[in-house]
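Materials and Methods. Structural model of Spore coat polysaccharide biosynthesis protein SpsF. The 254-residue sequence of Spore coat polysaccharide biosynthesis protein SpsF from Ciceribacter lividus was retrieved and submitted for structure prediction as follows.
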Amino acid sequence: MTRTVAIIQARFASTRLPGKIMLSLGNSTVLAEVIARCLQVVGVDEVCCAVAEGIASDVIAAEARKSGASVFVGAGDDVLARYIGAARMSRADVILRVTSDCPLIDPGVCSDVIAVRSRFDLDYATNNLPPGFPHGLDCEAFSRDALEDAFEKAALPADREHVTPFLRRESCFTRMSVRAPDASYAQQRWTLDHPEDYIFVYNVFRLLGGERAPWMELARLVQERQDLLGINASRVDTARLRSSILLADPEAHR
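The predicted structure was written out as tokens:
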């Protein structure tokens, strides 16, 4: 039986927003919220936090375990090696990749990406080629075999740091991307890199009052609130929106 593990990469260091994944969102931390949402993803058997080595990361490992995740500690800069270590430790056949600075990650979207990878027996599936979901809902699902291949062959520093560029680029891998039903929401920024992002996310969580709304419901709510949209509008990643990489849409194969 296929074993699927959500692996969340996490480190304490951040030049633009230090300690961002341990920031408070009311009743939980950013990291605890990401883990809680990954535990709700259909098809996930385990959530593993892949933590960068170093004494500063001890608090992250403790928070991850408290929140229901297993922990693997590995290389700080070679995140690809850290992912391989976590995948091997957790005996993963399929990996769902999520980053720890996305506390609004949507379990339903992640479930869809996992399902598409399984349905078409793909090496790799994602939901951002092209971008259509708010920035902060990005996720990827790929086979352990594909990850092992990337680990053995990827040599560029960017491939090692960002885990999946080799899988997204090389023609030997089969790939698809789940498209958003309304791509206009791609301009919303729900990820944490800057102080303005934290102010935005904190206010969204306060507005939700502890509820986890489906992403489209939340996106429509945010769209109607110019006071929210304006908080981190200057930080929107325009290069991401201009991405020219397009993968096949699974809807076209129904």
